[in-house]
From TrEMBL:
Cofactor(s) needed by this chain: FAD
Protein name as annotated: Methylenetetrahydrofolate reductase
SUPFAM superfamilies, alphabetized: FAD-linked oxidoreductase
A UniProt-annotated Pfam family: MTHFR
Source organism per UniProt: Rapidithrix thailandica
Domain of life: Bacteria
Amino acid sequence: MKVIDYIRQSDKTLFSFEILPPLKGQSIKSIFDAIDPLMEFKPSFIDVTYHREEYYYKQHPNGLLEKRTIRKRPGTVGICAAIMNRYHVDTVPHLICGGFNKEETENALIDLHFLGIENVLVLRGDSIKSEPAFTPTEGGHQYASELLEQVAQINNGIYQDEILENRTPTDFCIGVAGYPEKHFEAPNLNTDLKYLKLKVDLGAEYIVTQMFFDNQKFFEFEQKCRDMGITVPIIPGLKPFSSKRQLTTLPSFFHIDIPQELVAEVEKCQNNEQVRELGIEWCAQQSKELIKHGVPSLHYYSMGKSRSVSKIAAQLF
Ligand code: FAD
């Protein structure tokens, strides 16, 4: 079923979460171990992230450098199918611009359709370490809005490969990302929202936000979206804090602020076990307030670790 239909058909806040494919070479068991404890809270859908291939250089004994590619976390499409097969729950594969040309994107979408997957979260994708800024793949897309247009076209039976013209069109429900604290490259929030509105105008049916630790940021963002005429459901993304290190890593990876009150509480903790307990409490309070506010779903970034999310969900769902 489509994410948008789950939202429309429910009169209460839904539960959903995101997982990462395991590192290349590891078994799918780590995914199942992360999902098993969360199934009792009846997630409506599970997102699976997509990771761009990266480059590295191997030095040969003769001194020559060879450029090699590796996708550290492969398997998004297959993992979605495996999750649906095992748990009978809908999955939302993330689809990214980076690393794919239009034909490869089309093939991925055809595979997803063939597997009975009805949802995609359409994203530009992160830049890779070896690049100073995001660089589109030759024949691929620069922005999520362009990728979204391709998905919308396939939904209307317009394919890159002319042989496919007479096939039954796909019918993907399309979600996109939004940033309560603005995307780090955008000159200001209003400009970022202008492009968010473009994604909605092109066919995005809902928005999932970047994580935030201060609900006020979400409420202001949601109001600004509504003022700009963005009417689709906005799903808050939440992450339970779990280590002291995250005081610096989360702001640098995700370009978000940590509220001073949370920083002060984390600094008081003697060890990471205490930080985890604090993170659960903070995220549970955020969740309760967001449910009261009437958000369509609470979407947790589990990052492959279910313990904290399951303790929060146990208080709410
Ligand atoms: P876009 O919507 O393309 O926006 C990127 C930037 O360009 C913004 O600053 C925007 O304001 C600007 N912009 C947009 N359109 C235009 C235009 N037409 N002209 C000029 N400027 C424009 N990354 C992954 O690699 N894999 C994942 O699985 C993944 N999952 C994510 C899930 C969520 C919920 C979120 C919030 C992020 C996720 N990311 C993922 C990270 C995301 O790919 C990065 O934040 C990326 O830098 C931006 O992606 P986007 O889809 O928001 O890009």
